[in-house]
Amino acid sequence: MNLSVSNWLYIVSMIVSLVSIFVSNYLGQRVASKKFKREQELLRYNSLYVPLMNLLYDQDPDKYAFFNLLSLNRFEPFEDLMLNNVQFMGKESAEKFYKVIHEGKNAVIKRKNRTIELLKNGKNPEPLDKETSEAINLYKSLLIQLLSESEELAKELKLEPISKPLREALQQVQNL
């Protein structure tokens, strides 16, 4: 079977056409995949980290912020934000959040009730016990973890790491 040059050119042009269709499709899928990934990262950043930073800028990063938030019934906005966006958390922060909600919160509430009881009886509050101190430290550790995740995500998205000052402030308080 001898093919003429024009037949060979026809076959080659068909092959090139098929290959170009597959390459074009592959490249289009990669672009769409990158765009989807960026949109998901932006959604994560804007749904979890930006509202978290707004809440944190509104409170003083003092040593007992967790205790004060629970004592003054101001913890709910934080808890709601976390519960409604738990799917955006990293593994480590999700584990810490679970402990804060199920262990830390109970320890602080128990301590708050004990302090109220002492004050009602005209006694001075006792120093923080180990369980309450650990709960406070766990809460701060969760916030630092979330703010670190926010910084990493901001770098990936080529955004300013606006969570860095908050994280640094919390770390300074943590080291007191």
Describe this structure in words.
It is built from 6 helices and no strands. The protein is an all-alpha fold. The chain has one domain. Helix 1 runs antiparallel to helix 3 and helix 1 runs antiparallel to helix 5. It is rod-shaped, with a radius of gyration of 27 Å. The mean pLDDT is 89.
Question: How would you describe this structure in keywords?
Answer:
176 residues; mainly alpha; 6 helices
Spans of at least 5 consecutive residues whose pLDDT stays below 50 are: none
Q: What share of residues is helical?
A: over 70%
The value of Rg in angstroms is 27 Å
N-to-C CA distance? 88 Å
* Helix-and-strand structural type: mainly alpha
Proportion of strand residues: under 5%
Tell me the total number of β-strands: 0
Q: Please indicate the count of domains.
A: 1
Query: Any idea what the shape is?
Result: rod-shaped
Q: Describe the largest sheet.
A: none
Report the mean per-residue pLDDT as an integer: 89
Order of helices and strands: HHHHHH
SS summary, helix count: 6
